[in-house]
Give the backbone structure.
Amino acid sequence: MSLTRRDFLGFATGRFAPALAQPAGPKASADDPILHLLNRISWGPLPEELAYARTVGAEAYLEEQLNPEGIDDSAAEARLRQRTPLWYVDRRDIYRLASGEWRAYEDLTYGTIFRAVYSKRQLLERMVDFWSDHFN
């Protein structure tokens, strides 16, 4: 399924927000150091990620996040590959394939948001955003 300009603009303006909405996560508490850690190193933990972090403990979870190559993120990558095929094309061919349209930009924007929400490599995604913001 390709991302049309209308879909992208609808996504960007929040048209799909009700369809993508998830139950609100737990409120931050000074008594919950694991939730505090996940709120600091991620874009906000999904309930299953919070449960996993509580199972392994804060220190083990942080060590795992510091080694993103060891985290299996194949499910998110597969979903992203379906929606943003230009990410997986040689960059010299992108201009030829995009033929002057905003397709590459749309794919980049969608992929950035998608990874921030669904990637299991949350600390890496926060660092990518920090350094992208710093150098731009």
About this structure: Residues 5-12+29-135 form one domain. The mean pLDDT is 80. The radius of gyration is 17 Å. The chain is about 65% helix and 0% strand.
